[in-house]
Design goal:
Shape: globular
Strand order of the largest sheet: 4-3-5-10-6-9-7-8
Helix content: 25-40%
CATH class of the largest domain: Alpha Beta
CATH topology of the largest domain: D-Maltodextrin-Binding Protein, domain 2
Radius of gyration: 23 Å
CATH architecture of the largest domain: 3-Layer(aba) Sandwich
Number of domains: 2
Low-confidence stretches: 302-307
Number of strands: 10
Amino acid sequence: MTERRTRRQLPPLPALRAFEAAARHLSFKAAAEELAVTPTAVSHHVRQLEDALALRLFVRRPRRVALTPEGRVLYPVLRDGFDAFEEAIARLRGQRLKPVVTLSATVAFTARWLVPRVAAFHAANPGLDLRLHASDEPVDLISGTADAAVRYGRAVPAGLVGDLLFEDMFAPVCSPALGLHHPDELAEHTLIHFEWRRPHRDNPVWERWLAEAGLSGLVPRAELTLSDESQAVQALVAGQGVALAGLVLVADEIAAGRLVVPFGPRLRGYDYRLLYPAEPPHPERIAALRSWIRQEAAGGLGLPGRT
């Protein structure tokens, strides 16, 4: 007679599901949408799990959350477990699940550059699904939170390979309806700023640009500061002012004529790189991802020449 298995001592399944979804999205709101519950319910389940384990699993910050070291240990175990459940259920239903490659990137780059190009990935890789993970916090690619990431900077972290996609440039950008033609005209308009996640003296900001243009004493009509670059782009398209914007993120709007670069000079920004482990667990998925994103990047940004 087979020995009966000892009863498992596990936290409630809703708490485990809520934590796994919140950890995968790094967002209680996105997890709530996936699970068809409220963000408050997700927060309650996560707190229930933290109380059961007597551990903190998330660092809660305004508008986003991040995993603690304990959360990073638990997340891949639950993720793999739920993936195994999904695959087994699909087999029982006679379905065949496609493998998935997960790409992490900043919220702005995901929304403005990756999402419009997803159809090209699916067309080139009919046997592989793409999952986009949008977060301004770097993910741990070694632990498997994502297969690869597009990150903005100049250094490649140890243990990772970094393929250069773009060398970003910053220049004044605005709606063509403003009719700007000369830097002196900036005094008649609103200068739009956005907050850099990591303040640094090399960040291309208006103060640096005005000094480069010989306009350090310029006083604009008004100034507007937004929390991220995506909001700044929306304000630009709406004709709310002029921003010193990264040309990678506004390339599609410039190509479509919704935005223009009326004049220079341009400031060097940082680099967009595709990062992935030197020895990835699924090299064929990384190869498909690299081929797609490098081809998209090689298509150019459709921007006017440097000024």
